[in-house]
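BUG: 3D viewer hangs when loading the predicted structure for this chain

Environment: internal workstation, default settings.
Expected: structure renders.
Actual: progress bar stalls at 90%.

Input used:
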Amino acid sequence: MCGIVGAVGARNIVPVLVEGLKRLEYRGYDSCGVAVVQDGGLRRSRSTARVAELQTLVAQDDVRGFVGIAHTRWATHGAPALHNAHPHFSHGPAAPGQPLRPARVALVHNGIIENHEELRAELQARGYVFTSQTDTEVIAHLVDALYDGDLFDAVQQATLRLKGAYAIAVFARDEPQRVVGARYGSPLVLGVGQGIGEGERFLASDAMALAGVTDQIVYLEEGDVVDLQLGKHWIAARSASGRHERVERPVRTVQAYTAAAELGPYRHYMQKEIFEQPRALADTLEGVQGIVPELFGGDAAAVFGAVDSVLILACGTSYYAGCTAKYWLESIAKISTQVEIASEYRYRDSVPNPRTLVVTITQSGETADTLAALKHARGLGMQHTLTVCNVASSAMVRECRLAYLTRAGVEIGVASTKAFTTQLAGLFLLTLVLAKTRGLLDASAEAAHLKALRHLPAALQAVLALEPQIIAWSQEFARKEHALFLGRGLHYPVAQEGALKLKEISYIHAEAYPAGELKHGPLALVTSAMPVVTVAPNDALLEKLKSNLQEVRARGGELFVFADADTRIESGEGLHVIRMPEHYGLLSPLLHVVPLQLLAYHTACARGTDVDKPRNLAKSVTVE
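Structure tokens produced before the viewer hung:
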């Protein structure tokens, strides 16, 4: 959440900063701003609108400079108002009743500072005047209070006093040639300029912000502080003693994602990403020739042979992927599996088992709750760790012993789509590998599963062809304010994911239930004004599901059913059916979730909401 861009250059760096914010706007769009050193002082422009308006403002105000920082915000402390927008300035302490002096320090921040109230009281006692409700302004004043001519040193000292998570970029009026960054618990990368930007140095919360500027990236580690100057940089790492010591971090060539960040013929990134799912699945499964532990890393065979249970930790959409995997793991691999919401797991007493395989699921690999839950599990003695993740260079991949990297590519739409289906593919492979390790997967079953996996991209293309029928349904849904989603067994988590998608982007209140639970309460909500969406595969629970559908129809409910072709569920009064192209057995969730994604997308379009940037939400949740 939130996006940071910073730069030290030999040219006007503002266009680079603003373009970087455009690429990061999906991470937060409550407000945005840019600050530079200009004419010997600090200057900034801020907006509570989108980055496009900020771009207009900086042009109108002729904001320019060789050194600058920029930010796009997802509000935590303080409303999304102009005075809370980043960058924040510190003017130094002021005598009572005296005006503020010219700004001395400018700072942007991602994360949450847990001891901000204590620090605020201390700084106010020293004469610092606060103009926002943010925890970020505390850091700006703290750096100013510790500044004695060396910004790099001041930031190192300041970070030792911060509790919580942060990625910061800061510069000082009196050292106009440098920007200093630091990270702990929130991602931050360093970019090394090349080509037209030879010698320039950049900071960003995501390498994608630097697409088209540089592909030479240094991934900063927990506790790092970095000093950026023209043609050079230094990194200091926090040691176990709490002191900072100079270190070298490797420079990596990272794909710039410029093509991925372009919409092409699509109306929104979410639509583009829905239609990219066949390719994303093909890429994720590329190279899978057999079911072998080495798909998950060199140590996987030893780890898988040593575990007797699975604990899955995840949030949001990734949590529903984990819930789906539980059905696979227990039915195919016969291994006890527990799925925990990561934000809850570490705040309750649990019973650790050192023979548990702890599996984290995350698109970004930087999800704060999931990282914290992983560290908590390790602290309880569970050292067998694996992540299913979309970002090879992420903190989660570095923290886990094993990994399966999905290859969904960059996902810009806040509502996750292709990340979910590729996660399911990785989790299904994990299920098969564990089953084979436990002697429960013979050669014929392995071959059948591999054949089904390889056919997934083509099967998904056939599902995407249902879009015109789904658009027709969306016109009806756009007039509703509530919806129920039903599924049974393996498809209950799919119903949950469908409800989440609808509420995320259309703002229609949606709930999901196991269909058998209708009669235990939710049936009281069913009227003709409450559409009931049902996932109806031709599986062992079909006849039970049909009985549940009759319960809805008998009470005047309007049913919208995604049914496999051979389910013999026919359209009629109060019953609308879209037929899926084929039944896909255990992998059916990967197909059935796609029409639910399309239904949410087209309903949101019909209601006129901001599909890619839904209110109050942001991508890459890097705060607790």
